Description:
The protein has about 350 residues and is α/β, with parallel strands linked by helices.
Amino acid sequence: MDFLPLFCQLQHKPVLIVGGGEVAVRKARLLLDAKARVTINAPHLDPQLMSWTEQGVLTVCAADFHPELLDGKWLVIAATNQPEVNQQVFNEANRRQIFCNVVDSPAHCSAIMPAIIDRSPLMVAISSAGSAPVLSRQLREKLEAMLPQHLGQLAALAGKLRERVKAIPDKLARRRFWERLFSHERLACQLARGQQQAAEQSVAELLDEQPQSKGSVTLVGAGPGDAGLLTLSGLQQLQQADVVVYDRLVSQEVLALVRRDAERIFVGKESGRHCVPQQAINQLLLEQARLGKQVVRLKGGDPFIFGRGGEELETLAEAGIPFSVVPGITAASGCAAYSGIPLTHRDHA
Length: 349
């Protein structure tokens, strides 16, 4: 990780932009949206910057850069077309331990400006650490089309509900409430249409609703190792799970997709070495589900090919625990396909 993703609160804090051209305009617009106190340092200004100056939106120092301009600043952006000036800004900012962004020069950045999707208070930032800004913008455009506008209203509503939800004593019940809130289609429509009173009624119903006490188990095939071969349904289950019980053949790339606060339990086996007997695994799944948790049993390849998924489901069925199965790409076909070997080629199979 070259840069730590970090959201900065810059309201009413002084920042400096060195440069007065089109790039400076773009950076100033973002900083003004964040309600920062912007100072522009440039001998010549773009007409938009001049307009903002006349409106009193920002201040201008119409002179060459000098280090004293950095005093008291929280952030500085170097956006000139003179590499030696940008280098000087970067050096002086580093000396004063002030975060600095030098436009189009990742090697001279202690901070970078990501591509942003604004659904305030919900924000999504995408960065390639300066390596491929066009790719970041393309990803932003795709996500913009996917993320509905009402998400900001939903996030704001969640902020107002936090104290009330904290009063729910059980941690798991609190998380279940948030999951129901964020996936509530009627509430989403009400927020999108501005139906505030109806939205409040929907929230009240959710708060009064009693969550199911019984958990469930989903048997998920992790594929032959490449995270790109995990199914979309499998990914969704990993993101929703409270507990993930996984085997030795599940790759680290797939495990990295598990929700961060989910509990992970390793029950891997090798030939002749069963660190957790199958009967103990069956009981573990039962115990976790009876606690009301959403359990994912994650197996390499497909859970029904050379796996004992059927035995595990028999145990769950006998105990009345709800279960489902998400098939995976078995290693037999996955590895063959990656090697360019068609298993059913009519001349060679």
